[in-house]
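Dear colleague,

Thank you for sharing your sequence with our group. We've completed the structure prediction you requested, and as agreed, I am returning the results in plain text so they can be pasted directly into your records. Please verify that the sequence below matches your submission; if there's any discrepancy, let me know and we will rerun it promptly.
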Amino acid sequence: MLILNPDIVTLDLEGVSILLPDVETIAIDRLAQGVITESDPTGPHPAFADVAQQQTFVRIERHLDRTDDEAMLLLTPGVEVGLAVRMTIARSDAGARTLRARVVIESIRHDLKRDRARQSLRAIAISADGADPITIDGDS
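Please find the predicted structure tokens below.
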């Protein structure tokens, strides 16, 4: 899933809400873990495939044009946060949806150029009950 120019992106860390301004893209990547395949002796291709486990990664890319809030110092690899992404069409409240997930920060990287700076946050989505760690609420 790819989200372009989300309206509002926040990270909730133990009651501290951290607003991430200027988010350009959010990518949700799902990778298979524990792939099981069975072959059919009559052909070269698998006759059966199953994915026993999967990992869901969230990548947040944003443009930086000012100094971050001090709350960003709380975000370090290994920290668990609640992610909320409000998405709308044409910046209207009609049809607004919110993507939510519990994530563990994996990395925070900066790409510094003379005329711009970018920040990339990568996190692993987690689920305490084994359900899909990404949920989307409608009309929020």
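Summary note from our side: Residues 4 and 25 are 5 Å apart (CA to CA).

Kind regards,
the structure core
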